[in-house]
Amino acid sequence: MTKTIRLQGDSNAHDRPWRVAVEQGFFKAEGLNVEYHEDNPKGVAGRVENFSERWKESQLQAGALDVYPVCEWGAIERVQQLGAGKIIGLDTTARTGAIMVRKDSKITSLSQLRNVPIAVTWHAGTFYAAVEALEAAGVPFKEIKLEHANDRLDALLSGKNEAAALMEPLVSRAFSAGCRKLCDLRWRGGIVASDEIDDETAQKITRALNHAVEWLRANEERSREEVLRDLTPEQRKTGMMPELLGVQGYKPSEFQEKVDWMMERGYLERPPQYGEVVRGK
Fold first, then answer.
1. Looking at the predicted structure, is the pLDDT value of residue 12 above 90?
2. Does the pLDDT value for residue 49 go beyond 60?
3. Which of 12, 176, 264, 267 is most buried (most C-beta within 10 Å)?
């Protein structure tokens, strides 16, 4: 019997293996009928500050969504705070991005961003990755100022924010507008599934996604064309590619490292236990 699952991705390069798995029939080959949605139907207007009001999270809570990828930190936070679903693994890619400034900005290094509001999506991958990068550059946590923007690229180009943490396709669009990159960002994603997804179905999803990753890895030109499809052909040549890793299990040590980091910075009210938010094997 074919099982129907409802997936929600984002219109970003790092989620592209999900769409490839749909288009190339890899989910279908596993006996899964997938209802796939890319990005939220409200577009920029739906990228609100409170993550519980965003499309993916609200749909999962309402029982209208079965599976979605989100950043690793966000997966922990959302499962704990929303009380819906569990993490079934690390997502298909190591996600990439950049902190960028306008071409006329006087800022030339991360250390100059002390107490400077940086446009991010609140409590999403670029939010946490920006904190890591700034701390690594010597900026004390208390002097890191992040500011939510529904449209981070517009916030940067309009001058509302001096800097922005972006991912593709926004990085290449910022370069096309003359912006400069201060540093690269890198982070992992987690896969959150509702309680309706049993272990057998989770394994089928994993196999389909890993098949998509193998298909992408097999041809560099095809990989860039598929993963960076939101960019122009010229931009794809230099666009930031995520690292195609495949779905991986979420080890307790990896989980605990992220929980400790989040607790130290006040991003979690209490430390969740592994079994509370990660589905055991």
1. no
2. no
3. 12
| Residues 63, 83 contacting (CB under 8 angstroms) | no
Mean pLDDT throughout 105-112?
97
Q: What is the largest CA-CA distance in the chain?
A: 61
Is a pLDDT exceeding 70 seen at residue 8? yes
Q: Work out the pLDDT band at 60, boundaries 50, 70, 90.
A: low
Going from the C-alpha of 11 to that of each of 71, 174, 274, the distances in angstroms are 14, 17, 30
CA-based nearest residue to 183, from 159, 160, 162, 166: 166
Provide the token pair at 163: 């800097």
| Euclidean distance between CA atoms 42 and 168, whole angstroms | 19
CB 54 within 8 A of CB 46: yes
In angstroms, the first-to-last Cα distance of the chain is 24
